[in-house]
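Case 483 in the screening queue. Each case pairs one protein sequence with one candidate compound; here the compound is uridine-diphosphate-N-acetylglucosamine. For every case the pipeline is the same: read the inputs, emit a complex structure as tokens, and attach any notable structural observations.

Predict complex for case 483.
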Amino acid sequence: MSANRPAAVVVLAAGEGTRMKSATPKVLHEISGRSLVGHVVAASRELDPEHLVVVVGHAREQVAAHLGEIDAEVRTAVQEQQKGTGHAVRMGLEQLGSSGIDGTVVVVCGDTPLLTGDTLARLARTHAADGNACTVLTAEVPDSTGYGRIVRDRDSGAVTAIVEHKDATDAQRAIREINSGVFAFDGRLLADALGKVRTDNSQGEEYLTDVLGILREAGHRVGAAVAADHREILGINNRVQLAEARRLLNVRLLERAMLGGVTVVDPASTFIDVTVTFDQDAVVHPGTQLLGTTHLGEGCEVGPNSRLADTVVGAGARVDNTVAERAEVGEGATVGPYTYLRPGTRLGPKAKAGAYVEMKNAVVGEGTKVPHLSYVGDATIGEYTNIGAASVFVNYDGESKHHTTIGSHCRTGSDNMFVAPVTVGDGAYTAAGSVITKDVPPGSLAVARGQQRNIEGWVARKRPGSAAAQAASAVTEQADGES
Ligand code: UD1
Ligand code: CA
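Case 483 output:
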């Protein structure tokens, strides 16, 4: 256990986020595969706090349900009315006991998804090393409009107060060092100081930032840690900021992947979720989205223009212009272009799902090929089998789904319908254009189509004088001349 392990992290997420103009609560909007509050909870978890409390208010059932899904250990505290950040922290602390809690309490906002666990850990270390009652994470920003300004003593440089934009003088508004909204506190002193916070400010709210002055006046040490990169503390208030945060986070994730040995041909058109993993020498081509728990194996190539969700791509596989969800692509397999792999598709090593092929709940053995224009649904196919072009696994009778089993080393003809439930044995062949409704024994040839009948001279009789008739008679006369 780390010496800097906080007793609690309190995440503030009660606000409505009106400027998002959305039916979805602000903190539930997603970037890179996680909700905004999900990112904050994940970064907070890196501190390994004893307690993690999220203060909810607006749409609290929805937010609390989401939190329960992403992190079973999170506790929620309810702030009925949004009476300010100080009031919100007070509600959070009440979850942990009425007189606060021994040890360090870290406070973060639920709408700062770019904040890293590293930065939080650095704040906690500074807080402990300097023996502070309160340490605020600050940042120098190009435009400090709207933020609380950090007021420092002219001589000592010590932080003396945080003044909210709306309450600031012109001279204070010129300050570019701002309050990120992230703090480390001594738990007992915080609870005590929150009881003294007043509401005589321009917003009539209990400001958390006032705790700083209260602690200082009582003779306690107040300090600051300056964030290395101000973009990390970007708070999301509208969808322009949401897009900017997504872009910045995506760049961070792609850089990490590239430094780990992944080739990303065009970072600007490649989007990955935080949960995506890679092996060395994977290559991602332009226009590709990798989502959820997708994993790219060593030396595989994905894209261009592909969207893979919760899909595992084996080493050396090639996936081109493909949409895949909950699928597995074996080592050295090839997929695409224009291929749709739906949940439950498992392609074995060196298997192929070629152009305009859709698969669902299909297990395809090693070296088996489905090269062209086919639908394979609810099927098991053995090894080294070839499925002819334009085949359909007819899995649905209008009421329920049925399974088709095809053995190993089979050669099925083009334009086959496998009407499930049906089985084709190992080494069997089927004729082109067959509708397979009965099981085919191993090693047999199944022919299931109408017999061909040629009615000679039909065109000359029924379409006299037509181009077809002339073409036919030219061939007939030539043949007569030769004989
Ligand atoms: C706050 C800080 C400001 C800082 C800025 C950083 C105060 C008084 N001001 O301002 O110094 O520069 O963050 O982004 O602390 N919340 C609640 N309950 C409330 C009020 C807010 O849970 O009653 C939550 C919000 O959901 C949000 C966070 O606290 O996640 C910050 O609230 P917000 O209103 O966005 O604060 P700012 O005005 O931006
Ligand atoms: Ca506010």
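Case 483 observations:
- The first helix runs from residue 36 to 45.
- Residues 12-15, 55, 79, 82-85, 87-88, 109-111, 147-148, 162, 164, 178-181, 207-209, 235 surround uridine-diphosphate-N-acetylglucosamine (ligand 1) (CB under 6 Å).
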